[in-house]
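Recall that a protein's primary structure is simply its ordered list of amino acids. Everything else, from secondary elements to tertiary packing, is in principle encoded there. The following example makes that idea concrete.
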Amino acid sequence: MLALTMGAVIGPAVAVVTQSGIPTAVGAGLAGSAVAFVFTARRWLRRYWLLRAETSAEVREVLAARVAFYQRLSADEQREFERNVRCFLAEHTIAGPQQKPVSDETRVLVAASAAILLFGREDLDLPSRIDVVVYPEAFNEEYEVKRKGEILGQAHSQGPVILSERALREGFSRANDGQNVGIHEFAHMLDLEGARFDGTPSGMDGASARAWAGLVHGEIARIERHRSILRQYGATNEAEFFAVASEAFFERPAAMREKHPELYELLKGFYGQDPAARASKG
């Protein structure tokens, strides 16, 4: 479908720009379709083999020891989660500033952050390639590493996702506090529409998106009045609200279901998951 769409767009565009005739436009359209098909097919063929591969013992050990979400899954679900982790590790670059290597454990925790969000929906995906830059500590606006820096993570619409390694590790060590920088920043990437973050995730269906729009400002007002389980940063704007709400959905699901039932149901529908029910079984 992507290949045909690109061909339909490229062909007429070439005809207009070059003032060529229909045969040339058709040829250009077919060429564009072929390029798009090869690009798409290569990605999905590679993913096919990744899904068939085995998860290394080292990756499995990190997930079992550090990722509470993974620990609550059944054996079959754990294998599915591992496949998502393998795909992320293979398809996205994870390194420190200036491509400095980071530990394998850190790489697995980064991948697990994204895999948590994608676990419930096969049709939900991140942009095709994300560069993840992991700083050892928090950082400031000039990207200077500071132990007491105020920035723990950033998501850029046309650039990398940046994470503090310390914050990433702490997020998985304290799995019930509603704060996980990896989940937060990758939630932003699900919110990305074009070149901006607007607080309504692009994979949300029309009816849910309308319900979400009607809910957000009331929920932000609750945060401002300190009558919400969501942390204060969620009141910054609509985009930060979605990211903070996503953190709480996975880390404090029972509290969200009780105190914010409508919000919980919308996120449950969007992510295709019911973490409160899963937590009650574990």
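The beta strands are 93-95, 131-135, 153-155, 161-164, 192-193, 196-197. The longest strand covers residues 131-135.
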